[in-house]
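Recap from last week: sequence in, structure out.
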Amino acid sequence: MRRSSRSPENGVDGDDEREEEEEDEDEEQSAVDESDEEPRLKYQRMEGNVPSLLSADAASSIAVSERMIALGTRGGVVHILDFQGNQIKEFRSHSATVNDLCFDSDGEFIGSCSDDGLIVINSLFTDESFKFVYHRPMKALALDPSCSRKSFRRFVTGGLAGHLILCAKTWLGYRDKILHYGEGPIHAVKWRTTLIAWANDTGVKIYDMGNDQRIAFIEKPRGNPLVDMSLPLLIWQDDTVLVIGWGSSIKVVAIRTKTSQRVDAMEKPANVSTTAYADIVASVQTGYLISGIAPYGDALVVLAYISEKLTGGIASTNDTLRQGTAYRPEVHMLTWKNEELSSDSLPVHGFEHYLAKDYVLAHSPFNGSSYAGGQWAAGDEPMYYIVCPKDVVIARPRDAEDHISWLLQHGFHEKALAAVEAGQEHNSLLDEVGSRYLDHLVVERKYVEAASLCPKLLRGSTSAWERWVFHFAQLRQLPCLVPYMPTANPQLSDTAYEVALVALANDASFHKELLTTIKTWPPEIYSVLHVISAVETQIKSASATELLKEALAELYVINKQYEKAFALYADMMNPGVFDFIENHSLHDFAQDKVVQLMMLDLRKAVAMLIQHRDITSVSEVISQLRSCPEKCDKNYFLHEYLHSLFEVDSNAGKDFHDLQVGLYAEYEPRLLLPFLQSSQHYKLDKAYEICVRKDLLREQVFILGRMGNARKALSVIINKLEDIEQAIEFVSTQHDDELWEVLISQCRHKPEMIGALLEHTVGNLDPLYIVRTVPEGLRIPRLRDRLIKIITDYRTETSLRQGCNDILKADVVNLLIKYYKEARRAVYMGSMEGEKNSVRCCLCLDRLSRQDSGVVVFFCCHAYHLPCLTSGAAATTRCVLCTTAAG
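Predicted structure tokens:
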């Protein structure tokens, strides 16, 4: 059960003479302030003559017609009132409590029943009056709805005697007819069209006067309290829907009809009859006792009674309630599915001393046709009357003005303005309501809501905007207003915008808004230098945030201080820093931010540094990476940088190739061997130590080969790699015959390797030699097939060699013939001036040198060292090809 969340308005909760209630009312007002649910009803006490009437008497019952109200008292008086509470007339017909009142449908007669055993029917517009004596207390009365339109006056009544009596006027006078008896006192009776519903100790029964038969019985809910605590309640919502409230249970019963057709013996249709029956269409279990119930459109208005005894659950039939333990009664609005639409508490006079049966809820007749969306049209709204011994409270649906007032009180200013605008009010009223809203919010320190309303309330007034900007600044709440400040139509003074940005910078919780504002506001509406100065001061404080740094960087960009902006972006690890460097050509300033750039995006940073290595040298990059903090993987950064650099320029990082060997071995061993093969700038002994430590065998083989330790390299290939093909290839490249002997000796006890060796030695070793070295008894897999292949390959090789020799001999002969033919064509060369004893070749005209020792050496393409060709005493030099005399 949800406790009360709201107190009614318009004076219901106040009685200046009851000081003991002030504390409770303060608590209720606090609950109102915390509630965000708008009430459906508004309340006021009935004034007029009611307070004076109840000061000397106590109300016990009420009935409402379209014209007036009847109020019964415990003194036996029936007061006829208008809707303002002014007394029209009174009937002193009873000497005891008036238990029930009933108007006819036309509101011309009022009937009353009392504990004095009397039923009295009075005409409201004539002196006609009828009195019926039953000698037992009568608790319920219902007049025939058409009582005033028929000559016979009928009514149904019941009481403690347990008889449900139908009294009707005949030509012989009034006669009683007992419709039901024997199941305890009659507690309530209601008459609608031809249907009569009544409640006794067993439950509720419905009787159809048209068919003169009972059509339904709804059993009393189990576990409900005694009748002395709570009475059953019956309300006809319309001609076919009956609402039953009993204890904590509500049932909605729909009267339906079904048609049956009787068939005679000839199988022909006979009489057609219509039978009425009851169908329970809704059942609701509440957490409180029900003191009254009434329809509200498609919902129900329930008067709830809550006592200290009931706070832990509904009292059983054996429980009793102590006087003075009750809480204020509550008005709940429920749907048929038990969905609560609203809840209001009523601080009526003397509530703590009342029981559930001391309250009565009545409503004015209405059809509810204009109800829509929680609001009623003027002139077609229901009225509810809550009666207790000393109070009568009127409840009615709230109108548009009440709706706006409630929105204003609860801070829903946007909705209040929307409601005013929807009502097509004047602009002056809009301005007035808006001003009140804004002032109220500021007084209540609801600065965010006030700021959000400023665009609607201040509209295009420059002076109003600037006034509120500086007012918010004085309140130190300007950051709340900044998102709503206009930058055009109207445009404010530059001072207003600067004050706003500085206010955002001074509050760390608004640094995100500062960044957003700087990005969205046009820079020409404020002085950028003034804002930069303020933000730089704030950056030096302990409250500086990354968002504030980014905002300062944006200001630097606006002011074209790109170098300062880049420094901030790099320190903040901004992903857009690479594009920023390229767009503003800041590579010179990036050379000190190597580590930050690599931590941000390694791939982009490496590519940029390699491309611009003329600006940021390799040694500078390596130095910064080696000194970077522990939080980054500097070795991996070094590896990626040196690897990418080596792919672009193998000599650019040659001073760090020793370092690069270790990095390859740690991060990408598969790339180490190609690097070792390509580079000549690393120390072999250090590289070998790294490869041994990392157990990189092929790399060890390569380094050992380069170091000249071919035997150890061959041992690694055979004993660790066990790769005979690589061993053969390695020996072949070394051009060392002794290595073949080492290879054969190390493989002679390994059958598989001997077999593989036999397959790969054609052209390098004599296979027969290998076969001879194989120990006796060693089983070589597929030896026969391999020997056949050796013989076949040997024959093929022999044939190829023979063919090559034949081709070579033929080529030699052909070339000699060609040279011979060319040499026979002698060319005479006369002596050249200044070149005495100069001899030239007859083919290429190169000068031939002559020596005194008698040996001529020819320095040309045909030069040979030959003995002197002499004829007699005089030396004659001739060309060795054409034998032409040289002098």
